[in-house]
Amino acid sequence: MWLEILLILLSLFLALYRLITKQFGKWKNLGIPHAKGSFPFGSYNFFTSGKHLDELSAESHHKFASEKYFGWFLLGRPVLAINDVNLLKHIEVKDFDHFVDRQSKADNEKQFAGGDLDQIWKLQLTSITGDDWKEMRQAFTPIFTSGKMKGMLKFIKHVAGDLTKEIDSKAKKGEEFELKEVFGKFSMDGISSTAFGVNSESFTNENSKFVKNAAAMFRNSNLELLLAAVKFIPGVPQVLNLLKLDSFKPKETRFFRDIILQTIKIKKKHQREKK
To answer: Where are the beta strands (DSSP E) in 22-76?
Structure first.
């Protein structure tokens, strides 16, 4: 019995190894400079490095700075990275019709497989593809008209006042501070007030629930990174969808979902009262 179990586990491991490593020779065969891949994470060991995938990718951009483009591997998937600004302009502007989707619909389905909360992330503008992207883009466009932007300006001015007070306070104390942290608070309050109609109190309340949940969205534990990688194993997304298991920041997602639904409810109520 134990021998059979061992053979099954060995077979599964070899199948997974083959699945991930089978395309590791692609960039070499095409003569494209690349960051070598290794089992199981590909070019970047984001699980144990303690760095975000974007930080690891940036290191390769500096390493291949003299190249117009280079290749790397995300798990077993080949990824082409662009260094040349003019080439990037062609892709993003002139030839945009050929490069509309940031990722394939199939990858999007795998990445956000799971319960209702995970399904919300599948609908973000950077994830959806094809006609769904066009419809969502059309829905977003009216938000940024000159009239709407003017309406947002009063909120931005208020947040800018808090930013000025924060810097003045630190200057008077002769206190050193990180610009990234201070302007991160400014961005947080600006977005929360204009998009959610909520004062996140980044500058005045260290225990703000909004700030804590937003900050948690950008922190990934090793377990969360592992779960994200496991979703690309054949069969796993189907199981997560069947069991409706939420794996991507369920607590934080629920917090922001409830705020958005409450904001919509209040807005509809005010519109009915005006009528």
So the answer is: 69-74
